[in-house]
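User: Teach me something about this protein's shape.
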Amino acid sequence: MPRKIIRRTTPLAEEPAPPVSKPDPAPKQKSGGSPFGLIAMLVLVACAGLAGWKYLPSSNKGATKASASTTDQVADLVKAVSKHIVVKAGETPMVAIVQDPDALRAQNALFYKDAQTGDRLLVWSDKAVLYSPSRDIVLAMAPLSPSAGTPSAPNTPVASPSKDQVTVEVRNGSGILGLATKAADKLKAEGWKVVTVTNAKQKDAKSSQVLGSSEKTLGSLPSDLAKLIDGSVVSSLKDETPSTADILVIVGGDYQP
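Assistant: First, the predicted structure itself:
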């Protein structure tokens, strides 16, 4: 019988399992920090290298631009601030939110002295204002002066109290009976803290005058009050007895209640 030839074949090697493809990790977002740093940089460029702007954070730590704020939210914020100071009409300010008060104080101890998390920094072309929505007070203000169409270095930031934190004395210098009382009532209705209403030594003052205390930081409050009564801010009042109030008002004959 013919032999059966049995051929042995080498067993096929088991094919390796296809490699398991791991999903690519999500690309890490660059920690560019808050866009507020960009604002500060643009402002510095606009200033053409001028020194100053000490109220702005020197880095992107401590405050962030309120980019998510709607136009209505910014308008409401400006309306709240305008109850305490005169703001530039027709101009929308840059707005930043305080996130790390200690980091900001390390950069500018005076301006951010009373800052808390959540406070707002508003920057117009003529001033920078630190405002607390939760406390409804202006914590600090840095006035700016225009130069060749661009903001220049501000003066040293001045911590400005709100009008309900200062005392006001109203004196009648017009000789018109009851005119000082009417002026005092108007100031009280606007939120000013009037503590005394009396007569002035002078009886023939033609216009109203406002004198702020030289011993207390008042910011723009004397000028704000003067605008309210159509008066003017003066550096001294001749022959008048010094007042113990923070602001002294002499009501003149041209005052219209």
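Now, about its shape. The helical segments are 36-46, 71-81, 101-107, 179-189, 221-228. Residues 163-251 form a domain with the Alpha-Beta Plaits fold (CATH 3.30.70.2390). If you'd like, I can walk through any region in more detail.
User: That's plenty for now, thanks!
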